Amino acid sequence: MEMVEGVAVNIVLVHGSFGGGWNWKKVAPGLRAAGHLVLTPTLTGVGERSHLLSPSIGLETHIQDIVNVLTYEDLHDVLLVGHSWGGMVITGVAESQHARIARLVYLDAFIPQDNQSVFDISSRAGERWRVKEAWGLVPPHDPASSGITDPDDVAWVQARRAPMSIKTHEDRIRLPHNHAASLPRSYIWCTESPGFAGMAEIARSEGWDYHELPTNHSPMVTIPNELTATLLQIAEMTQGAIPA
Fold this sequence. Notes:
CATH architecture: 3-Layer(aba) Sandwich
Order of helices and strands: EHEHEHEHHEHEHEHEHH
CATH class: Alpha Beta
């Protein structure tokens, strides 16, 4: 991918449920080739941090994971992207870190309001997540449920997905100032992902910068080049709005 001259932002990609920084392996290289700083942190309890899994891990744990990335990496003018569950996380991060964030990007993601949990937002998620193992841990869902059907992709994802604490999805987010709503926001809806059609409609109706991708819920796996192109478009728009 060619270098995009004059376009360089700090991009932080936050994965969804059961995932990890590995989720972005097919997307991050293209963003970096365009000159951007790209970080792909893994939330506590999954991926290479699965040895830390505990039923006490909740929404605030994952919010703090990303707050710490922005703080310790001293990042500003951040394009903060959240996929699926990551929408809860980036909304919570914006509550305390809004001055560091240039734009929030919700990739087929939850858009919470104050005092909402994932289960409050989505009854479908609640039904699927309440099948839990001992100590409140939930096993990862079949990749096919996210539209991943290529055998190589299925094997790659299945080998890396990890259980999560149900507390993450039971916890209600606290947004006393709702700083996320005051930031520029983009929504990317995966049109074959009906579970997030309602979230996409909220973004559309509120006049967000809005995009669609013709795939199911895991575009970073199924159509990474198209997702990369969309994120580059948003990054270019974001860079143009950052004061010199």
